[in-house]
Design brief:
It is a single chain. The strands form 5 sheets. Strands 1, 2, 4 and 5 form a 4-stranded antiparallel beta sheet that branches. Helix 3 packs antiparallel against helix 4 and helix 5 packs antiparallel against helix 6. The chain has 2 domains: 41 residues, no CATH class; 249 residues, Alpha-Beta Complex (Creatine Amidinohydrolase), CATH 3.90.230. The chain is built from 6 helices and 15 strands. A hairpin with a 6-residue loop joins strand 7 and strand 8. The chain is α+β, with helices and mostly antiparallel strands.
């Protein structure tokens, strides 16, 4: 027997949708009938490993305002449009972010630790005279985020070795020329199962379909609508706790960019806005649980999660992707 999908009728014949009836208790392994309980039991594939000390950044490299204190002080609520000078600087920051991400992804393989990927990213970032934006942001201890399998977002690089069959999202943000550039991709570690391949493919399609909507006069909630329609078609779920965000001189600022449909969100895109779209799509339930480290978010049912992200500029006639193109790494693997 297989469990019903979220919007199917519940197995208990209550007449209610499964998500409104036994979904939560089944995920906890409490109420599913014999033959279904076994399917619900998932063991974590990722456990916290040893975290090495922060890597130093040379003194000559420009730093964001939180680099020393860990506390962002820039106004995060303001939604600013960039001027021509800032656009050029954001293009440069986005190009560096892409270079660093490509360097990291080229090194993903069975047996490498996520801490080693972090060192590779850190080294390449400072070689390019940039600061790794996550480093000490609100105390985050590393230079990139590495989110493996059931880790949705903000995974801290550590001593865990990647193994064949894993999927891993590598999230790179750099601060260069006074601006931040932010991008991420999910890739395969060796051969992975078909379900994981489908999850990663659909998540990539969510990003690209939503990018294609970006233009002046467009409602931000169109992003969530196109993603939600595609995700429902494939029986996946959308993480709601974490969203895209404005970016520029500040790492995070308005506008907030939801990856689920919000019919009452009337915010409209304007030429000169810069923001990220970064859908996090889960194979199982949408809900997350945050580890005691206060960063690592995992799926509540321990099903796998995938994410992709680009930094975007709204142009006069559409959109410019500031952090790369339309050919993801997983399609080359």
């Amino acid at each position: 027997m297989k469990l019903p999908k979220r919007n199917d009728l519940c197995w208990c014949n209550s007449g209610k949708k499964y998500k409104k009836c036994h979904l939560h208790s089944d995920e906890l392994g409490e109420t599913a009938p014999p033959g279904l309980q076994k399917e619900m039991v998932r063991k974590p594939t990722v456990a916290a490993g040893r975290i090495s000390p922060m890597n130093p950044v040379p003194d000559h490299i420009g730093r964001p305002e939180y680099a020393d204190t860990g506390a962002p002080t820039s106004a995060r609520s303001s939604c600013k449009k960039v001027n021509p000078d800032q656009i050029e600087r954001m293009r440069k920051a986005g190009k560096i972010a892409r270079e660093v991400l490509d360097t990291v992804l080229a090194n993903v393989r069975p047996g490498i630790t996520t801490d080693a990927l972090d060192r590779i990213a850190h080294s390449r970032t400072v070689e390019l005279d940039a600061y790794p934006s996550p480093l000490n942001y609100m105390g985050f201890p590393k230079s990139i985020c590495t989110s493996v399998n059931e880790v949705v977002v903000h995974g801290i690089p550590d001593s865990r070795e990647l193994v064949a069959g894993d999927i891993v999202n590598c999230d790179v943000t750099v601060y260069a020329f006074g601006m931040h550039g932010d991008c991420s991709e999910t890739v395969f570690v060796g051969e992975v199962d078909e379900d994981s391949k489908k999850l990663v493919q659909v998540t990539w399609e969510c990003l690209m379909k939503s990018i294609d909507l970006v233009r002046p006069g467009q409602h931000f909630n169109a992003i969530g609508k196109v993603i939600e329609d595609l995700v429902r078609e494939h029986g996946f779920s959308i993480v709601r706790e974490f969203t895209g965000h404005g970016i520029g001189e500040s790492f995070h600022m308005a506008p907030y960019v939801a990856h689920f449909y919000e019919p009452n969100n009337a915010t409209i895109m304007e030429e000169g806005m810069t923001f990220t779209i970064e859908p996090m799509i889960n194979a199982g339930c949408a809900e997350c649980v945050v580890w005691p480290d206060k960063w690592t978010a995992v799926t509540r049912d321990l099903a796998r999660s995938a994410q992709f992200e680009h930094t975007l500029l709204v142009t006069a006639d559409g959109v410019e992707i500031l952090t790369g193109g339309r050919q993801p790494w997983f399609m080359k693997q």
